[in-house]
Design goal:
This protein has 605 residues and is α/β, with parallel strands linked by helices. 41% of the residues lie in helices and 20% in strands. A hairpin with a 2-residue loop joins strand 19 and strand 20.
Protein backbone atom coordinates (compact mmCIF):
# COMPACT_ATOMS: atom_id res chain seq x y z
CA UNK A 1 0.00 0.00 0.00
CA UNK A 2 1.31 3.47 -0.94
CA UNK A 3 2.17 5.76 1.98
CA UNK A 4 -0.29 8.61 2.73
CA UNK A 5 0.19 11.90 0.93
CA UNK A 6 -1.08 13.89 3.92
CA UNK A 7 -1.63 13.11 7.59
CA UNK A 8 -3.17 15.39 10.23
CA UNK A 9 -3.09 14.12 13.82
CA UNK A 10 -4.80 15.41 16.97
CA UNK A 11 -5.50 18.84 15.47
CA UNK A 12 -6.80 21.48 17.87
CA UNK A 13 -7.72 24.99 16.73
CA UNK A 14 -10.14 27.73 17.72
CA UNK A 15 -10.83 31.44 17.62
CA UNK A 16 -11.64 32.07 21.27
CA UNK A 17 -14.18 30.13 23.28
CA UNK A 18 -14.67 26.44 22.54
CA UNK A 19 -12.29 25.22 19.79
CA UNK A 20 -13.87 24.39 16.45
CA UNK A 21 -11.38 21.52 16.08
CA UNK A 22 -10.50 19.28 19.03
CA UNK A 23 -8.46 16.17 18.24
CA UNK A 24 -9.44 16.14 14.56
CA UNK A 25 -7.56 13.77 12.24
CA UNK A 26 -7.32 13.33 8.48
CA UNK A 27 -5.38 10.89 6.31
CA UNK A 28 -5.29 11.21 2.51
CA UNK A 29 -3.74 8.49 0.32
CA UNK A 30 -3.03 8.61 -3.43
CA UNK A 31 -6.21 8.68 -5.59
CA UNK A 32 -8.45 9.20 -2.53
CA UNK A 33 -11.75 10.99 -3.16
CA UNK A 34 -12.86 12.45 0.19
CA UNK A 35 -15.76 14.81 0.85
CA UNK A 36 -15.50 16.91 4.01
CA UNK A 37 -18.93 17.40 5.61
CA UNK A 38 -20.06 19.53 8.55
CA UNK A 39 -22.22 22.41 9.68
CA UNK A 40 -21.27 26.02 8.95
CA UNK A 41 -18.72 26.95 11.61
CA UNK A 42 -17.71 23.33 12.30
CA UNK A 43 -14.16 23.98 11.06
CA UNK A 44 -14.21 22.51 7.53
CA UNK A 45 -12.43 25.44 5.87
CA UNK A 46 -10.06 25.76 8.84
CA UNK A 47 -9.07 22.09 8.58
CA UNK A 48 -8.52 22.46 4.83
CA UNK A 49 -6.27 25.51 5.40
CA UNK A 50 -4.29 23.55 7.98
CA UNK A 51 -3.97 20.69 5.47
CA UNK A 52 -2.72 23.21 2.88
CA UNK A 53 -0.15 24.57 5.34
CA UNK A 54 -1.67 28.06 5.28
CA UNK A 55 -2.28 28.22 9.03
CA UNK A 56 -0.70 26.40 11.96
CA UNK A 57 -2.95 24.58 14.43
CA UNK A 58 -2.76 25.39 18.13
CA UNK A 59 -1.85 21.76 18.67
CA UNK A 60 -1.32 18.67 16.55
CA UNK A 61 0.86 17.39 13.73
CA UNK A 62 0.81 17.88 9.96
CA UNK A 63 2.86 15.59 7.72
CA UNK A 64 3.11 15.80 3.93
CA UNK A 65 4.92 13.02 2.10
CA UNK A 66 8.28 14.31 0.77
CA UNK A 67 7.94 15.34 -2.86
CA UNK A 68 4.11 15.39 -2.82
CA UNK A 69 2.54 18.48 -4.42
CA UNK A 70 -0.52 20.06 -2.80
CA UNK A 71 -2.79 22.75 -4.28
CA UNK A 72 -5.59 24.55 -2.44
CA UNK A 73 -8.66 26.34 -3.87
CA UNK A 74 -9.83 29.07 -1.46
CA UNK A 75 -13.39 30.37 -1.27
CA UNK A 76 -12.14 33.93 -1.89
CA UNK A 77 -9.04 34.01 -4.14
CA UNK A 78 -6.57 36.88 -3.82
CA UNK A 79 -5.80 38.55 -7.18
CA UNK A 80 -3.63 41.33 -5.75
CA UNK A 81 -0.60 42.08 -7.92
CA UNK A 82 -1.85 40.29 -11.07
CA UNK A 83 -2.66 42.19 -14.29
CA UNK A 84 -4.62 39.42 -16.03
CA UNK A 85 -6.29 36.10 -15.28
CA UNK A 86 -3.52 34.38 -17.29
CA UNK A 87 -0.70 35.76 -15.14
CA UNK A 88 -2.69 34.79 -12.04
CA UNK A 89 -3.21 31.21 -13.29
CA UNK A 90 0.40 30.80 -14.44
CA UNK A 91 1.64 31.84 -11.00
CA UNK A 92 0.35 28.52 -9.69
CA UNK A 93 2.75 26.54 -11.88
CA UNK A 94 5.98 25.08 -10.53
CA UNK A 95 9.21 24.67 -12.55
CA UNK A 96 8.70 21.86 -15.05
CA UNK A 97 4.90 22.16 -15.16
CA UNK A 98 3.23 22.34 -18.58
CA UNK A 99 2.40 26.01 -19.29
CA UNK A 100 0.06 24.95 -22.12
CA UNK A 101 -2.30 23.47 -19.55
CA UNK A 102 -3.12 26.98 -18.33
CA UNK A 103 -4.30 27.93 -21.83
CA UNK A 104 -6.32 24.72 -22.07
CA UNK A 105 -8.05 25.29 -18.71
CA UNK A 106 -8.78 28.97 -19.36
CA UNK A 107 -10.43 28.05 -22.66
CA UNK A 108 -12.44 25.22 -21.11
CA UNK A 109 -13.58 27.56 -18.34
CA UNK A 110 -14.67 30.29 -20.72
CA UNK A 111 -11.87 32.80 -20.05
CA UNK A 112 -9.54 34.42 -22.58
CA UNK A 113 -6.75 35.06 -20.07
CA UNK A 114 -6.83 38.81 -20.76
CA UNK A 115 -9.51 39.63 -18.16
CA UNK A 116 -8.67 42.24 -15.52
CA UNK A 117 -8.89 40.48 -12.11
CA UNK A 118 -10.25 43.67 -10.51
CA UNK A 119 -13.34 43.53 -12.74
CA UNK A 120 -14.22 39.84 -12.51
CA UNK A 121 -17.68 38.63 -11.54
CA UNK A 122 -18.01 35.99 -8.81
CA UNK A 123 -18.25 33.20 -11.39
CA UNK A 124 -15.27 34.47 -13.40
CA UNK A 125 -13.14 34.75 -10.25
CA UNK A 126 -14.01 31.18 -9.32
CA UNK A 127 -13.10 29.92 -12.81
CA UNK A 128 -9.75 31.75 -12.77
CA UNK A 129 -8.97 30.25 -9.35
CA UNK A 130 -9.85 26.78 -10.66
CA UNK A 131 -7.47 27.23 -13.62
CA UNK A 132 -4.65 28.17 -11.24
CA UNK A 133 -5.37 25.25 -8.88
CA UNK A 134 -5.83 22.53 -11.51
CA UNK A 135 -3.04 23.56 -13.91
CA UNK A 136 -0.12 21.91 -12.04
CA UNK A 137 -1.97 18.53 -11.85
CA UNK A 138 -0.86 18.11 -8.20
CA UNK A 139 -0.80 14.91 -6.16
CA UNK A 140 -3.44 16.37 -3.82
CA UNK A 141 -6.23 18.85 -4.52
CA UNK A 142 -7.93 20.64 -1.61
CA UNK A 143 -11.10 22.30 -2.94
CA UNK A 144 -13.24 24.61 -0.78
CA UNK A 145 -16.70 25.06 -2.36
CA UNK A 146 -15.49 24.81 -5.98
CA UNK A 147 -19.01 25.05 -7.47
CA UNK A 148 -19.95 28.35 -5.79
CA UNK A 149 -20.97 30.97 -8.41
CA UNK A 150 -20.45 28.50 -11.28
CA UNK A 151 -23.19 27.84 -13.81
CA UNK A 152 -24.38 24.36 -14.71
CA UNK A 153 -22.24 23.93 -17.84
CA UNK A 154 -19.04 24.67 -15.92
CA UNK A 155 -20.14 22.47 -12.99
CA UNK A 156 -20.73 19.60 -15.43
CA UNK A 157 -17.31 20.17 -17.01
CA UNK A 158 -15.57 20.38 -13.62
CA UNK A 159 -17.25 17.19 -12.43
CA UNK A 160 -15.95 15.35 -15.50
CA UNK A 161 -12.46 16.88 -15.22
CA UNK A 162 -12.09 15.88 -11.55
CA UNK A 163 -13.44 12.38 -12.21
CA UNK A 164 -10.68 11.85 -14.80
CA UNK A 165 -7.94 13.45 -12.67
CA UNK A 166 -5.19 11.33 -11.10
CA UNK A 167 -4.95 13.73 -8.14
CA UNK A 168 -6.22 12.78 -4.71
CA UNK A 169 -9.13 15.00 -3.72
CA UNK A 170 -10.50 16.52 -0.52
CA UNK A 171 -13.67 18.42 -1.31
CA UNK A 172 -16.02 20.76 0.57
CA UNK A 173 -19.31 21.41 -1.23
CA UNK A 174 -23.04 21.90 -0.60
CA UNK A 175 -23.90 20.36 -4.00
CA UNK A 176 -25.24 16.87 -3.22
CA UNK A 177 -25.06 15.61 -6.79
CA UNK A 178 -21.49 16.85 -7.19
CA UNK A 179 -20.47 15.13 -3.93
CA UNK A 180 -22.26 11.90 -4.80
CA UNK A 181 -20.60 11.75 -8.21
CA UNK A 182 -17.03 12.34 -7.03
CA UNK A 183 -16.58 11.06 -3.46
CA UNK A 184 -15.56 7.57 -2.32
CA UNK A 185 -15.02 8.40 1.37
CA UNK A 186 -16.62 10.88 3.78
CA UNK A 187 -15.08 12.75 6.71
CA UNK A 188 -17.68 14.29 9.03
CA UNK A 189 -16.55 17.19 11.22
CA UNK A 190 -18.84 17.17 14.23
CA UNK A 191 -18.21 18.97 17.53
CA UNK A 192 -14.50 19.26 16.86
CA UNK A 193 -13.95 15.61 15.92
CA UNK A 194 -13.42 14.11 12.47
CA UNK A 195 -15.26 10.82 11.87
CA UNK A 196 -14.52 8.85 8.73
CA UNK A 197 -16.87 6.71 6.65
CA UNK A 198 -15.30 4.64 3.87
CA UNK A 199 -18.23 5.33 1.57
CA UNK A 200 -19.08 8.26 -0.64
CA UNK A 201 -21.60 10.94 0.19
CA UNK A 202 -24.54 8.77 -0.89
CA UNK A 203 -24.16 6.74 2.32
CA UNK A 204 -23.41 9.66 4.64
CA UNK A 205 -26.83 10.81 5.80
CA UNK A 206 -28.01 7.32 6.82
CA UNK A 207 -24.74 6.76 8.70
CA UNK A 208 -24.90 10.18 10.39
CA UNK A 209 -28.46 9.61 11.60
CA UNK A 210 -27.44 6.24 13.05
CA UNK A 211 -24.47 7.79 14.88
CA UNK A 212 -26.64 10.54 16.39
CA UNK A 213 -29.29 8.02 17.41
CA UNK A 214 -26.68 5.89 19.21
CA UNK A 215 -25.35 9.00 20.95
CA UNK A 216 -28.81 9.90 22.18
CA UNK A 217 -29.19 6.41 23.64
CA UNK A 218 -25.85 6.81 25.44
CA UNK A 219 -26.92 10.23 26.69
CA UNK A 220 -30.12 8.73 28.06
CA UNK A 221 -28.13 6.01 29.84
CA UNK A 222 -25.88 8.67 31.39
CA UNK A 223 -28.89 10.63 32.67
CA UNK A 224 -30.34 7.47 34.22
CA UNK A 225 -27.02 6.63 35.86
CA UNK A 226 -26.85 10.11 37.42
CA UNK A 227 -30.40 9.73 38.73
CA UNK A 228 -29.56 6.31 40.27
CA UNK A 229 -26.44 7.69 41.95
CA UNK A 230 -28.37 10.64 43.40
CA UNK A 231 -31.04 8.24 44.75
CA UNK A 232 -28.39 6.01 46.37
CA UNK A 233 -26.70 9.00 48.04
CA UNK A 234 -29.97 10.20 49.52
CA UNK A 235 -31.36 6.87 50.69
CA UNK A 236 -28.44 4.39 50.80
CA UNK A 237 -26.66 2.97 53.83
CA UNK A 238 -24.90 5.90 55.53
CA UNK A 239 -22.52 3.79 57.63
CA UNK A 240 -20.19 3.06 54.69
CA UNK A 241 -18.80 6.56 54.68
CA UNK A 242 -15.66 5.85 52.66
CA UNK A 243 -17.69 4.23 49.91
CA UNK A 244 -20.11 7.18 50.04
CA UNK A 245 -17.26 9.63 49.48
CA UNK A 246 -16.05 7.63 46.47
CA UNK A 247 -19.52 7.42 44.97
CA UNK A 248 -20.04 11.14 45.58
CA UNK A 249 -16.84 11.77 43.62
CA UNK A 250 -18.16 9.53 40.83
CA UNK A 251 -21.41 11.48 40.79
CA UNK A 252 -19.55 14.79 40.47
CA UNK A 253 -17.56 13.29 37.57
CA UNK A 254 -20.77 12.13 35.85
CA UNK A 255 -22.35 15.54 36.30
CA UNK A 256 -19.25 17.19 34.83
CA UNK A 257 -19.44 14.80 31.86
CA UNK A 258 -23.08 15.71 31.37
CA UNK A 259 -22.30 19.45 31.54
CA UNK A 260 -19.45 19.24 29.03
CA UNK A 261 -21.22 16.80 26.72
CA UNK A 262 -21.39 18.54 23.36
CA UNK A 263 -24.68 17.73 21.71
CA UNK A 264 -25.03 17.90 17.97
CA UNK A 265 -25.61 21.51 16.92
CA UNK A 266 -29.29 22.40 16.70
CA UNK A 267 -31.19 22.96 13.50
CA UNK A 268 -31.99 26.30 11.96
CA UNK A 269 -35.64 27.22 12.62
CA UNK A 270 -37.05 28.65 9.41
CA UNK A 271 -40.34 30.53 9.79
CA UNK A 272 -41.67 32.77 7.07
CA UNK A 273 -43.85 35.88 7.42
CA UNK A 274 -46.89 35.56 5.19
CA UNK A 275 -48.43 38.66 3.62
CA UNK A 276 -52.03 39.10 2.59
CA UNK A 277 -53.16 36.23 0.37
CA UNK A 278 -53.01 37.20 -3.28
CA UNK A 279 -55.34 35.98 -5.99
CA UNK A 280 -54.91 32.72 -7.86
CA UNK A 281 -52.96 34.31 -10.74
CA UNK A 282 -49.76 35.93 -9.46
CA UNK A 283 -47.90 36.82 -12.68
CA UNK A 284 -48.84 36.82 -16.37
CA UNK A 285 -46.23 37.69 -18.99
CA UNK A 286 -47.28 38.01 -22.62
CA UNK A 287 -44.67 38.02 -25.39
CA UNK A 288 -42.21 40.10 -23.37
CA UNK A 289 -38.84 41.21 -24.73
CA UNK A 290 -35.89 43.13 -23.32
CA UNK A 291 -32.65 44.42 -24.87
CA UNK A 292 -29.67 46.36 -23.60
CA UNK A 293 -28.12 48.53 -26.31
CA UNK A 294 -28.00 46.06 -29.20
CA UNK A 295 -27.96 42.92 -27.07
CA UNK A 296 -31.17 40.87 -26.96
CA UNK A 297 -31.66 39.50 -23.41
CA UNK A 298 -35.26 38.20 -23.42
CA UNK A 299 -37.23 37.54 -26.58
CA UNK A 300 -40.97 36.86 -27.04
CA UNK A 301 -41.48 35.05 -23.71
CA UNK A 302 -44.88 34.20 -22.21
CA UNK A 303 -45.86 32.50 -18.96
CA UNK A 304 -48.67 32.38 -16.38
CA UNK A 305 -47.58 31.78 -12.77
CA UNK A 306 -50.25 30.87 -10.24
CA UNK A 307 -50.25 31.13 -6.46
CA UNK A 308 -48.32 28.29 -4.83
CA UNK A 309 -46.12 27.46 -7.82
CA UNK A 310 -42.37 26.90 -7.46
CA UNK A 311 -40.47 28.02 -10.56
CA UNK A 312 -36.76 27.35 -11.16
CA UNK A 313 -34.74 29.36 -13.70
CA UNK A 314 -31.58 27.73 -15.10
CA UNK A 315 -28.99 28.42 -17.75
CA UNK A 316 -25.41 29.61 -18.27
CA UNK A 317 -24.11 32.72 -16.52
CA UNK A 318 -24.82 35.78 -18.62
CA UNK A 319 -27.90 34.25 -20.26
CA UNK A 320 -30.31 36.78 -18.73
CA UNK A 321 -31.77 34.84 -15.78
CA UNK A 322 -31.62 37.79 -13.36
CA UNK A 323 -33.05 40.11 -16.03
CA UNK A 324 -35.97 37.71 -16.53
CA UNK A 325 -36.64 37.64 -12.77
CA UNK A 326 -36.61 41.43 -12.62
CA UNK A 327 -39.07 41.57 -15.50
CA UNK A 328 -41.42 39.00 -13.95
CA UNK A 329 -41.41 40.71 -10.54
CA UNK A 330 -41.87 44.28 -11.79
CA UNK A 331 -38.31 45.46 -11.21
CA UNK A 332 -37.87 46.16 -14.94
CA UNK A 333 -40.26 47.28 -17.66
CA UNK A 334 -40.23 45.12 -20.82
CA UNK A 335 -39.41 46.76 -24.15
CA UNK A 336 -42.15 44.72 -25.80
CA UNK A 337 -45.13 42.74 -24.54
CA UNK A 338 -46.87 43.13 -21.19
CA UNK A 339 -46.58 41.87 -17.61
CA UNK A 340 -49.45 41.75 -15.12
CA UNK A 341 -48.81 41.22 -11.40
CA UNK A 342 -51.45 40.53 -8.77
CA UNK A 343 -52.29 43.82 -6.98
CA UNK A 344 -51.71 42.09 -3.62
CA UNK A 345 -48.16 40.99 -4.49
CA UNK A 346 -45.73 41.36 -1.56
CA UNK A 347 -42.17 40.53 -2.64
CA UNK A 348 -39.26 39.25 -0.54
CA UNK A 349 -35.87 38.58 -2.14
CA UNK A 350 -32.54 36.91 -1.38
CA UNK A 351 -29.89 38.45 -3.61
CA UNK A 352 -26.94 36.39 -4.85
CA UNK A 353 -24.20 38.87 -4.00
CA UNK A 354 -25.42 39.68 -0.44
CA UNK A 355 -25.14 43.33 -1.58
CA UNK A 356 -27.75 44.53 0.90
CA UNK A 357 -25.45 43.70 3.83
CA UNK A 358 -23.18 46.47 5.10
CA UNK A 359 -19.90 45.30 6.59
CA UNK A 360 -20.06 47.81 9.43
CA UNK A 361 -23.52 46.65 10.57
CA UNK A 362 -23.90 44.32 13.50
CA UNK A 363 -26.12 41.28 12.98
CA UNK A 364 -28.86 42.91 15.05
CA UNK A 365 -28.70 46.11 12.95
CA UNK A 366 -28.85 44.05 9.76
CA UNK A 367 -32.14 42.52 10.92
CA UNK A 368 -33.81 45.79 11.91
CA UNK A 369 -31.96 48.26 9.64
CA UNK A 370 -30.88 49.94 12.86
CA UNK A 371 -34.47 50.52 14.04
CA UNK A 372 -34.97 49.05 17.51
CA UNK A 373 -34.51 45.53 18.86
CA UNK A 374 -37.76 43.85 17.77
CA UNK A 375 -39.05 42.42 14.48
CA UNK A 376 -42.37 40.92 13.40
CA UNK A 377 -42.09 37.35 12.09
CA UNK A 378 -45.08 35.25 11.01
CA UNK A 379 -47.44 37.53 12.93
CA UNK A 380 -45.38 37.34 16.14
CA UNK A 381 -43.27 40.10 17.65
CA UNK A 382 -39.80 38.76 18.44
CA UNK A 383 -36.66 40.16 20.01
CA UNK A 384 -33.95 40.24 17.36
CA UNK A 385 -31.60 38.09 19.45
CA UNK A 386 -34.25 35.41 19.88
CA UNK A 387 -34.87 35.39 16.14
CA UNK A 388 -31.14 35.20 15.34
CA UNK A 389 -30.88 32.22 17.70
CA UNK A 390 -33.30 30.37 15.39
CA UNK A 391 -30.60 30.71 12.71
CA UNK A 392 -27.85 29.37 15.01
CA UNK A 393 -26.34 32.76 15.90
CA UNK A 394 -25.25 33.21 19.51
CA UNK A 395 -26.14 36.30 21.61
CA UNK A 396 -22.46 37.30 21.48
CA UNK A 397 -22.54 37.30 17.66
CA UNK A 398 -25.59 39.57 17.54
CA UNK A 399 -23.38 42.55 18.43
CA UNK A 400 -20.44 41.65 16.18
CA UNK A 401 -19.87 43.29 12.76
CA UNK A 402 -20.94 41.46 9.61
CA UNK A 403 -17.44 41.65 8.11
CA UNK A 404 -16.24 38.85 10.44
CA UNK A 405 -18.91 36.37 9.29
CA UNK A 406 -18.08 33.34 7.15
CA UNK A 407 -19.77 32.85 3.79
CA UNK A 408 -22.21 30.35 5.29
CA UNK A 409 -23.08 32.68 8.17
CA UNK A 410 -23.73 35.52 5.71
CA UNK A 411 -26.02 33.18 3.78
CA UNK A 412 -27.97 32.34 6.94
CA UNK A 413 -28.26 36.03 7.81
CA UNK A 414 -29.62 36.86 4.35
CA UNK A 415 -32.17 34.08 4.74
CA UNK A 416 -33.17 35.48 8.13
CA UNK A 417 -33.72 38.92 6.56
CA UNK A 418 -35.68 37.59 3.59
CA UNK A 419 -37.95 35.33 5.64
CA UNK A 420 -38.74 38.03 8.22
CA UNK A 421 -40.32 40.23 5.56
CA UNK A 422 -44.07 39.59 4.98
CA UNK A 423 -44.45 38.17 1.49
CA UNK A 424 -46.51 36.04 -0.85
CA UNK A 425 -43.85 36.02 -3.60
CA UNK A 426 -40.38 34.82 -2.61
CA UNK A 427 -37.48 35.29 -5.04
CA UNK A 428 -34.26 33.42 -4.24
CA UNK A 429 -31.18 34.11 -6.38
CA UNK A 430 -28.61 31.33 -5.77
CA UNK A 431 -29.87 30.55 -2.24
CA UNK A 432 -27.65 27.47 -1.86
CA UNK A 433 -24.32 29.34 -1.98
CA UNK A 434 -22.30 28.72 1.21
CA UNK A 435 -25.14 27.00 3.11
CA UNK A 436 -24.46 23.70 4.85
CA UNK A 437 -26.44 20.60 3.92
CA UNK A 438 -28.65 20.60 7.04
CA UNK A 439 -29.68 24.23 6.46
CA UNK A 440 -30.39 23.37 2.82
CA UNK A 441 -32.67 20.53 3.96
CA UNK A 442 -34.63 22.96 6.13
CA UNK A 443 -34.75 25.55 3.35
CA UNK A 444 -36.24 22.90 1.07
CA UNK A 445 -38.90 22.12 3.68
CA UNK A 446 -39.67 25.82 4.09
CA UNK A 447 -40.11 26.24 0.32
CA UNK A 448 -42.44 23.21 0.26
CA UNK A 449 -44.56 24.66 3.10
CA UNK A 450 -44.49 28.29 1.92
CA UNK A 451 -48.08 29.30 1.08
CA UNK A 452 -47.07 31.79 -1.60
CA UNK A 453 -45.20 31.58 -4.90
CA UNK A 454 -41.45 30.90 -5.18
CA UNK A 455 -39.15 31.84 -8.06
CA UNK A 456 -35.53 30.76 -7.69
CA UNK A 457 -32.32 30.74 -9.70
CA UNK A 458 -29.99 27.86 -8.88
CA UNK A 459 -27.20 25.79 -10.39
CA UNK A 460 -27.75 23.02 -7.81
CA UNK A 461 -29.41 20.16 -9.70
CA UNK A 462 -30.45 18.21 -6.61
CA UNK A 463 -31.90 21.33 -4.96
CA UNK A 464 -33.98 22.06 -8.08
CA UNK A 465 -35.31 18.50 -8.17
CA UNK A 466 -36.35 18.78 -4.51
CA UNK A 467 -38.06 22.17 -4.70
CA UNK A 468 -39.55 23.23 -8.06
CA UNK A 469 -42.49 22.03 -10.15
CA UNK A 470 -41.47 23.88 -13.32
CA UNK A 471 -38.15 24.91 -14.88
CA UNK A 472 -37.51 27.86 -17.21
CA UNK A 473 -34.44 27.10 -19.31
CA UNK A 474 -32.32 29.81 -20.96
CA UNK A 475 -31.68 28.47 -24.47
CA UNK A 476 -29.57 31.42 -25.65
CA UNK A 477 -30.19 34.43 -27.90
CA UNK A 478 -32.89 35.62 -25.48
CA UNK A 479 -34.97 32.47 -25.79
CA UNK A 480 -36.44 30.83 -22.67
CA UNK A 481 -38.42 27.56 -22.64
CA UNK A 482 -40.66 26.29 -19.84
CA UNK A 483 -40.64 22.61 -18.79
CA UNK A 484 -42.91 20.88 -16.30
CA UNK A 485 -41.22 19.24 -13.29
CA UNK A 486 -37.73 19.58 -11.80
CA UNK A 487 -34.27 19.66 -13.36
CA UNK A 488 -34.19 15.91 -14.09
CA UNK A 489 -37.62 16.15 -15.75
CA UNK A 490 -36.29 18.97 -17.94
CA UNK A 491 -33.30 16.82 -18.95
CA UNK A 492 -35.63 13.93 -19.87
CA UNK A 493 -37.82 16.22 -21.98
CA UNK A 494 -34.90 17.92 -23.74
CA UNK A 495 -32.87 14.74 -24.16
CA UNK A 496 -29.86 16.51 -22.62
CA UNK A 497 -28.95 18.83 -19.78
CA UNK A 498 -27.14 22.14 -20.03
CA UNK A 499 -24.15 20.95 -22.04
CA UNK A 500 -20.69 21.88 -20.80
CA UNK A 501 -18.98 24.30 -23.15
CA UNK A 502 -15.49 23.83 -24.56
CA UNK A 503 -15.29 27.50 -25.43
CA UNK A 504 -17.72 29.05 -23.01
CA UNK A 505 -16.59 32.60 -23.70
CA UNK A 506 -17.21 32.26 -27.44
CA UNK A 507 -20.57 30.66 -26.88
CA UNK A 508 -21.62 33.40 -24.47
CA UNK A 509 -20.67 35.94 -27.11
CA UNK A 510 -22.79 34.05 -29.63
CA UNK A 511 -25.68 34.02 -27.15
CA UNK A 512 -25.55 37.81 -26.93
CA UNK A 513 -27.40 37.97 -30.25
CA UNK A 514 -28.15 41.52 -31.27
CA UNK A 515 -31.67 42.64 -32.08
CA UNK A 516 -30.81 43.51 -35.70
CA UNK A 517 -29.44 39.96 -36.26
CA UNK A 518 -32.59 38.34 -34.85
CA UNK A 519 -35.25 37.31 -37.35
CA UNK A 520 -37.82 40.08 -37.94
CA UNK A 521 -41.02 39.45 -36.04
CA UNK A 522 -43.09 39.56 -39.22
CA UNK A 523 -41.38 36.53 -40.73
CA UNK A 524 -41.00 34.40 -37.57
CA UNK A 525 -42.96 31.20 -37.35
CA UNK A 526 -46.32 31.68 -35.60
CA UNK A 527 -46.13 30.86 -31.91
CA UNK A 528 -48.70 28.61 -30.28
CA UNK A 529 -50.82 30.36 -27.64
CA UNK A 530 -50.23 27.43 -25.32
CA UNK A 531 -46.95 27.22 -23.44
CA UNK A 532 -45.36 23.82 -22.83
CA UNK A 533 -46.60 23.84 -19.27
CA UNK A 534 -50.16 24.58 -20.42
CA UNK A 535 -50.02 21.81 -23.02
CA UNK A 536 -48.77 19.42 -20.32
CA UNK A 537 -51.63 20.48 -18.03
CA UNK A 538 -54.19 20.02 -20.82
CA UNK A 539 -52.99 16.46 -21.35
CA UNK A 540 -52.96 15.49 -17.66
CA UNK A 541 -56.03 17.32 -16.34
CA UNK A 542 -58.58 14.71 -17.60
CA UNK A 543 -56.92 12.01 -15.49
CA UNK A 544 -56.85 14.38 -12.52
CA UNK A 545 -60.55 15.17 -12.97
CA UNK A 546 -61.45 11.47 -13.16
CA UNK A 547 -59.50 10.79 -9.95
CA UNK A 548 -61.25 13.66 -8.15
CA UNK A 549 -64.64 12.26 -9.24
CA UNK A 550 -63.63 8.85 -7.84
CA UNK A 551 -62.50 10.45 -4.55
CA UNK A 552 -65.84 12.25 -4.24
CA UNK A 553 -67.71 8.97 -4.78
CA UNK A 554 -65.68 7.31 -2.02
CA UNK A 555 -66.30 10.18 0.42
CA UNK A 556 -70.03 10.16 -0.34
CA UNK A 557 -70.07 6.41 0.37
CA UNK A 558 -68.42 7.03 3.75
CA UNK A 559 -70.95 9.70 4.66
CA UNK A 560 -73.81 7.38 3.63
CA UNK A 561 -72.88 4.80 6.28
CA UNK A 562 -75.74 4.28 8.78
CA UNK A 563 -75.20 5.95 12.12
CA UNK A 564 -71.70 7.22 11.26
CA UNK A 565 -72.18 10.57 12.95
CA UNK A 566 -73.36 9.03 16.24
CA UNK A 567 -70.77 6.26 16.14
CA UNK A 568 -67.72 8.26 15.06
CA UNK A 569 -68.35 12.03 14.81
CA UNK A 570 -64.64 12.76 14.24
CA UNK A 571 -64.56 10.53 11.14
CA UNK A 572 -67.81 12.07 9.90
CA UNK A 573 -66.50 15.63 10.24
CA UNK A 574 -63.21 14.68 8.61
CA UNK A 575 -65.07 13.20 5.63
CA UNK A 576 -67.25 16.33 5.32
CA UNK A 577 -64.17 18.58 5.24
CA UNK A 578 -62.41 16.32 2.74
CA UNK A 579 -65.49 16.27 0.50
CA UNK A 580 -65.73 20.07 0.46
CA UNK A 581 -62.03 20.39 -0.38
CA UNK A 582 -62.18 17.75 -3.13
CA UNK A 583 -65.25 19.35 -4.70
CA UNK A 584 -63.45 22.70 -4.71
CA UNK A 585 -60.41 21.12 -6.40
CA UNK A 586 -62.66 19.46 -8.96
CA UNK A 587 -64.27 22.78 -9.83
CA UNK A 588 -60.87 24.45 -10.23
CA UNK A 589 -59.55 21.59 -12.38
CA UNK A 590 -62.61 21.63 -14.65
CA UNK A 591 -62.41 25.43 -14.98
CA UNK A 592 -58.72 25.25 -15.88
CA UNK A 593 -59.30 22.47 -18.44
CA UNK A 594 -62.06 24.50 -20.09
CA UNK A 595 -59.81 27.60 -20.27
CA UNK A 596 -56.94 25.63 -21.80
CA UNK A 597 -59.21 23.86 -24.27
CA UNK A 598 -60.52 27.21 -25.50
CA UNK A 599 -56.95 28.46 -25.91
CA UNK A 600 -56.05 25.33 -27.86
CA UNK A 601 -58.99 25.83 -30.24
CA UNK A 602 -58.01 29.47 -30.78
CA UNK A 603 -54.46 28.40 -31.64
CA UNK A 604 -55.64 26.04 -34.37
CA UNK A 605 -55.67 27.49 -37.92
Amino acid sequence: MAPPLLTLKNIRHGFGGAPCLEGAELTVSPRDRICLIGRNGSGKSTLLKIAAGLIDPERGERFVHPGATVRYLPQEPDFAGFRTTRTYAEAGLAPGDDAYRVSYLLEQLGLTGDEDPARLSGGEARRAALARTLAPEPDLLLLDEPTNHLDLPVIAWLEQELAQSKSALVLISHDRRFLTSLSRATVWLDRGKARRLDQGFSGFETWRDKVLEEEEIERHKLDRKIANEEHWLRYGVTARRKRNVKRLGNLHALREEARTYRRAQGDVVLAVSEAETAGKLMIEARNIGKSYDSRLIVSDFSIRISRGERIGIVGPNGAGKTTLINLLTGGLEPDTGSITLSPATALATLDQRRDSLKDEWTLAEAMTDGRGDFIDVAGERKHVMGYLKDFLFTPEQARTPIRVLSGGERGRLMLARALAKPSNLLVLDEPTNDLDLETLDLLQEMIADYPGTVILVSHDRDFLDRTVNAVIMADGAGKFTTYAGGYSDMVNQRGEGIVARKAAGKRLSAMATTADRAAPAAIREPKSKLTFKERHALETLPATINKLHADIDKLNAVLAEDGLFDRNPARFNKAVDALALTQKRLGEAEEEWLRLELLREEAQP
